[in-house]
Backbone:
């Protein structure tokens, strides 16, 4: 994915998170991640893409919290780069958040490969994505949901995303579904439809608007094939006198040998 298209897509995504519907979605992200903060802590947290005020980042107990974005924003973006070419070392990040960032890459796996490169073994990756079978997914397909600059995006189900990550050595740690109201952009309608959140949780299999998929990176432990020279064997001398001989014919204790010589 070229940097020019990334600039257009993620500028539009950042602008959408400042709209009434985007603010509501950000609040839903915050509420859903509240229960996940107990085990998500460490040294470095990286978020791919700036999404409005990023209010959910306050819930994570990491020393460093970085946001990578293809465009610069004062006091918000710490790393300005293409998201599929991060200027970070391999195995250098403890946790990565991907809030609606994977969809613009469509069928390309370059973003997933870059996530796998910089994430530490046993680190976590958090995907906040749109459910393609929900009202939100349908609105995005027909052009009623303006999250991105164009509709050349690809939404994936949790099952598809899990299968892709399993091939890369990841294991599903958590999966939650949330937000059951339709994507309306007027604040008064959003308030009127909030009761659908509770009703949608009770109607199975009514699809939710978003899902949160958390996976943990596992790494195969391989033996060290470097051969080490054997240590030189030191001669060991016993402090006590030997009590028997190695030859069977001479395997006599000193007292018995002396007795035999006297008799002879």
Residues:
């Amino acid at each position: 994915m070229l940097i020019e298209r990334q600039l257009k897509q993620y500028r539009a995504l950042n602008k959408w998170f400042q709209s009434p519907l985007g603010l509501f979605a950000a609040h839903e992200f915050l509420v859903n991640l509240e229960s996940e903060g107990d085990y998500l802590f460490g040294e470095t947290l990286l978020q791919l893409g700036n999404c409005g005020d990023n209010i959910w980042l306050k819930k994570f107990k990491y020393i460093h919290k970085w946001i990578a974005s293809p465009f610069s924003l004062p006091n918000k973006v710490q790393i300005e780069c293409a998201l599929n070419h991060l200027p970070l070392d391999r195995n250098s990040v403890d946790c990565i958040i991907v809030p609606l960032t994977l969809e613009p890459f469509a069928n390309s796996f370059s973003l997933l490969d870059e996530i796998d490169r910089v994430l530490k073994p046993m680190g976590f990756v958090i995907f906040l994505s749109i459910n393609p079978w929900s009202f939100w997914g349908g609105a995005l397909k027909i052009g009623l949901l303006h999250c991105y600059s164009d509709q050349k995006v690809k939404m994936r189900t949790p099952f598809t995303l899990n299968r892709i990550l399993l091939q890369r050595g990841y294991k599903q740690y958590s999966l939650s579904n949330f937000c059951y109201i339709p994507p309306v952009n007027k604040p008064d309608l959003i308030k009127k439809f909030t009761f659908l959140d509770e009703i949608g949780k009770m109607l199975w299999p009514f699809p939710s608007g978003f899902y949160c998929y958390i996976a943990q990176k596992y790494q195969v432990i391989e033996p060290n094939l470097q051969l080490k020279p054997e240590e030189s064997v030191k001669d060991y001398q016993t402090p006590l006198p030997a009590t028997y001989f190695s030859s069977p014919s001479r395997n006599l204790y000193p007292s018995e040998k002396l007795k035999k010589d006297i008799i002879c």
Notes: The chain has a mean pLDDT of 85. The chain is about 30% helix and 20% strand. The helical segments are 3-16, 20-33, 110-118, 135-141, 158-166, 187-192, 195-202, 254-263.
